[in-house]
Amino acid sequence: MPTWNADQYLKFEDERTQPCRDLVARVSLPHVWKAIDLGCGPGNSTKVLAERWSDAQITGLDDSPSMIEEARREQPQHHWIVQDITHWAEKPSSETFDLVFSNAALQWVPDHASLFPKLFARVATGGAFAVQIPCNLNAPAHESMREISPGMRVREWHAHTSDFYYDLLVPYSTRLNMWETEYIHVLPNAEAIVEWYKGSGLRPFLESFDTDSDRAQFLAEYLKRIRAVYPPRPDGNVLFSFRRLFWVAYR
Ligand SMILES: C[S@@+](CC[C@H](N)C(=O)[O-])C[C@H]1O[C@@H](n2cnc3c(N)ncnc32)[C@H](O)[C@@H]1O
Fold first, then answer.
1. What is the set of domains in the chain, with CATH numbers?
2. What band does 10 get if pLDDT is binned at 50, 70 and 90?
3. Which residue's alpha carbon is at the smallest distance from atom 25 of ligand 1?
4. How many Å lie between the centroid of ligand 1 and the Cα of residue 104?
5. How close is the Cα of 67 to the center of ligand 1, in Å?
6. What is the dihedral of CA 74, 36, 44, 131, to 10 degrees?
7. Is the Cα torsion angle 58, 62, 68, 71 positive or negative in sign?
8. Is the CB of residue 103 below 6 angstroms from any atom belonging to ligand 1?
9. Is 104 in the pocket of ligand 1 (CB under 6 A)?
10. pLDDT tens, position by position, 46-89
């Protein structure tokens, strides 16, 4: 059964961390003493927070023990918690953070309408809730997953439009900045796109198979589709477009 795998995820560390750097660059706070990185994975996003706010007390939270183990090994100076984001949000606590941050993780967590006000409640007055989630569920890479798995009951990412998040967050915010960016990753071949998604979006599909041979067959069919929809450029590389939604909501 595939689980979160830090090595697989970090095969594309630069590409996956760039949106985090872009989000951090847009957080405009006079100081950050305390920050929490929700769905911190192997700690790549947490490291970006620590570079920007070197005096801050930083907590990384993730429900994957293997991701937290990798993060703790690399950055023992921070506080690491293995916990589900929903459980963390629902646990009564008066502890607040100048920055509640999440890069590329909240799309895995259901029921944003009820969850996000609870996450916002953990932002200190004057602080910020800064988030990036993918918004490319209609991209050919995702359509291909669905096309080759008709009838398969897979709950893909939880992601809504910017209107949904605006309406949800604006009542709590003194200022709300939102934007989308389409990253065009230059990858060496179609196989690299499959490798990328084996570390993230393909996981729910792969987990639904009982046997390795079924998984291998699914991956072979997926690669065939990906080769067709992401043809090589004349230099042999493929262009992998990936659209992402960002916001910084200030309390
Ligand atoms: C795509 S990785 C993002 C890692 C990192 N934040 C980054 O910027 O690259 C998503 C992470 O969210 C974590 N995650 C998914 N659902 C979660 C949940 N309900 N509670 C806590 N962590 C969760 C996964 O274990 C994984 O490490």
1. 6-136+155-184+242-250 (3.40.50.150)
2. confident
3. 64
4. 7
5. 8
6. 170
7. negative
8. yes
9. yes
10. 999 999 999 999 999 999 999 999 999 999 999 999 999 999 99
